[in-house]
Specification:
Length: 92
């Protein structure tokens, strides 16, 4: 069955445990300039996506195209100052 909608992460430590390919990430929410978010590999700790807010209302993202970011170990929300992350995955 296909997954509908994005994976939503809002708390440090939120983890998606299946192998996946990330197509896009969006960080949304009320922020303070300088707030940060990081998504990483839950096993190796490799940084997959860092972002820093430059304003008080963040809607920032990354679209990596059809190949996506390979995440054989899944992915983890390793840092977030505020808001939430929407992670869009490629279907297999």
């Amino acid at each position: 069955m296909a997954r509908e909608g994005p994976v939503v992460m809002s708390v440090v430590g939120d983890t998606f445990v299946k192998a996946a390919r990330i197509l896009a990430l969006i960080w949304e929410g009320s922020t303070v300039a300088g707030d940060t978010v990081e998504v990483s590999d839950p096993v190796s700790g490799a940084l997959l996506w860092p972002c820093r807010a430059n304003d008080t209302n963040t809607y920032a993202g990354l679209n990596v195209g059809s190949e996506g970011i390979p995440c054989p170990n899944g992915f983890k929300l390793s840092k977030i100052s505020s808001g939430r992350i929407l992670v869009y995955l490629r279907e297999n």
